[in-house]
Amino acid sequence: MRILLVEDTPEIGLAVQKRFERIGYAVDWETDGRTASELIEVQPYDLVVLDVMLPNMDGFTVLKHLRRRGLRSPVLVLTARSAVDDRISALDLGADDYLVKPFDYRELEARARALLRRAAGMADNTIKAGPLVIDRAGRTAMIAGAPLDLTRRELTVLEILASRPGAFVGKEELLEQLFGFDRDPSTNAVEQFITRLRRKLAATSVEIRTERGLGYQLVAS
Q1: What's the total number of domains in the chain?
Q2: With 90 as the cut, is the pLDDT of residue 56 above it?
């Protein structure tokens, strides 16, 4: 999953970035509203976490521009402005949720999971593909009740593939979901994750297949 974080307070921005990256998400962190608005035009995001008080362009204006362009990425607004009118304004402009500062980072993660789940059409935090079960909240994976020992990025790759069983996911898409703009990995990084996953899935009925020109496909029986 790829998240855009727009927050100009360094302590909050760094803490949020680290929380999401520890889960396994790719995070692009911007501190300027206008830069963030321009970035949204060229890069799709699974979630936008948006502060209101920003330099050059406030968060409400960023949100207004995003929705006017027809972009449907879920938006979670973060702000110290707790007045009811501010919350109503954010929701009316197209925000999907609203969290007032100061906040508990566990609540932020839970709200982000809920928005990602809703956008994917999932009823809960569980992804199932045959005997494979992934708990997105607990960040665990099991096959036929046996836990898999995965790194955070291995789990993220498996999560992306399992959320679209039978479909092909290209290397470039996986790369975008795993790393932010501050990293410059090659597609070899994806191949390494796939190789390690295949090794850990070898004794199970879950398989990752490769189709040249299409990408990777999860098959579970």
Answers
A1: 2
A2: yes
Number of Cβ within a 10 Å radius of residue 16: 24
Q: Is the pLDDT of residue 88 over 90?
A: no
Asked if 136 and 196 sit in the same domain, the reply is yes
Count Cβ neighbours within 10 Å for each residue of 89-98 and write b for 16 or more, e otherwise.
bbeebbbbbb
The H-assigned helical ranges of the chain are 10-23, 33-42, 59-68, 84-93, 105-119, 152-162, 171-178, 187-201
Shared domain for 146 and 104, answered yes or no, is no
pTM for the complete prediction? Answer: 0.76
CATH number at residue 195: 1.10.10.10
CA-CA distance, 60 to 146, in Å (whole number)?
46
Distance CA 19, CA 60 (A): 24
Q: How far is CA 137 from CA 28, 82, 125, 155, in A?
A: 21, 27, 6, 12
Which domain covers residue 70, as residue numbers? 2-119
Is residue 140 predicted with pLDDT exceeding 90? yes
